[in-house]
Amino acid sequence: MGGPPSIPALVRARVRAAVRRPSRLTPEETAGRALTLRLVSLLLQYPDAELTTARAELTTVVEALPVTPAAEHLARFTGWFAAQDPEALERHYVEMFDLRRKSSLYLTYYLHGDTRRRGMALLTLNQRYRAAGWDTDGGELPDHLPVVLEFAALAGPGGGEAPLRRHRRGLELIHRALTDADSPYGHVLAALLTLLPPPTEADRAAVAQLVAEGPPNEEVGLDPYGTYGEGEFAPPGTFVPPLPAPPTHVPPAPTSRTEGPR
After folding, report:
1. How far does the chain reach from its first CA to its final CA, in angstroms?
2. What's domain 26-213's architecture?
């Protein structure tokens, strides 16, 4: 057997454990975390007239946050956000999030691509929201990052933030794509990532593979959120709809997608 762990090793282990146990935060820290998540959710939404009108108020709220790495990143973003012409903000948002697959805000796309598994992941997210008594009102898909962030803020650090932790690699890819594009929105993703466990070597390798190869692609529809196929495994505790009966005719070949993932 080896000797006792070194002091630096003990410190690293304790830091990792603290990051992975957000439920042990004080009530004040939990409230501050929820506010940060809500701010990130707001700042990642389309900059329509209502949001751009509230820029001064958002800047004031960010400036009042306790000094943290997340607050510093948000302050850098809101400084840019407040100074831009509204039409320029709209164009920049569309370019970053609607026209680039590597910075799309639909999280299950990075984990499952255009496959049947993505449909089940969307269904699982909806089930999680409903079990917590939260209705998304159907305005966006349940994996849209601002929606996931709002749920995390409402439901708390444990189960509420579980979808963010599950999609850590997709968030890393979005952050990398925004940073490579020199977009100030990279600061918003950076603020979010400071709240999550640090990436593992496996995470970094998976992100590198996503950059090189992209997500899996099966060219299937998402309505009504798809099902698992034969030989595929659903996440534990999820409802798996029965497989459909074999078709009595040959279906037409699927058409290729020409728009960003949704």
Report:
1. 52
2. Orthogonal Bundle (1.10)
Domain segments of the chain as ranges: 26-213
Three-state SS sequence of the chain: CCCCCCHHHHHHHHHHHHHCCHHHCCHHHHHHHHHHHHHHHHHCCCCCHHHHHCHHHHHHHHHCCCCCHHHHHHHHHHHHHHHCCHHHHHHHHHHHHHCCHHHCCECHHHHHCECHHHHHHHHHHHHHHHHCCCCCCCCCCCCEHHHHHHHHHHHCCCCCCHHHHHCHHHHHHHHHHHHHCCCCHHHHHHHHHCCCCCCCHHHHHHHHHHHHHCCCECCCCCCCCCCCCCCCCCCCCCCCCCCCCCCCCCCCCCCCCCCCCC
pLDDT, tens digit, 9 for 90 and up, residues 127-183: 999 998 888 776 789 999 999 999 999 998 889 999 999 999 999 999 999 999 999
